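User: quick one, fold this
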Amino acid sequence: MIKNSTFKFLEDVAVNNDREWFQVNKSRYEDARANAIDFTREVILGLSVSDPLITTDIEPKDCVLRIYRDIRFSKDKTPYKTNIGIGISQNGKNFKGPGYYIHIHPKTSFITGGCWMPEASLLKSIRQEIDYSSSDFNSIISHPAFIKYYKNLDREDMLKTAPKGYGTDHPYINYLKLKSFTASHDINRKILTGKDAVAYTVGVLRTLFPFMEFLRNAVS
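Assistant:
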């Protein structure tokens, strides 16, 4: 589970987002990171049962993202993130293709998986796979287990027109116009701090496996 003290640290760093405060409270950050690593270890163990690419030799610490923000090209110069990010793939948090992600935040935690903003070659391959294997794709995103947790794919970032090579009358044009192929499920703080936090998280992520497998086949 995610400890209440971890959420409290994230709340406090949001209010006191400066290096002086962080140095005084660095031990709290280390405790929060250790909690996230322990949580990740259990999630990896659960996923390893259903996803052959997620094995128990993946280092949990390699899946937890740094709290330090890259502010070089940002107008927001606050140095620290106010969430804990967990990226899980065969390469830990460093993946360009399909992967799982858990976002821990006091108010807006969520579970997601898929390909976020893939590079052009991967994006092209995914669109081709949706075009070639439309029935398989539809059976995955319309499956009751998928709809129960995810309802549909995320549609935050889409092309305004049809991508090159596809007509506007294509039956899956609303998916082909996507720039990311992800599905997300909001999870509240009460669940994450409860005794069934790992079981719930793993259960939700497991329903993504057919979608993940489809994407992996597309980009392989």
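User: anything notable?
Assistant: Strands lie at 84-88, 99-104, 110-115, 181-186.
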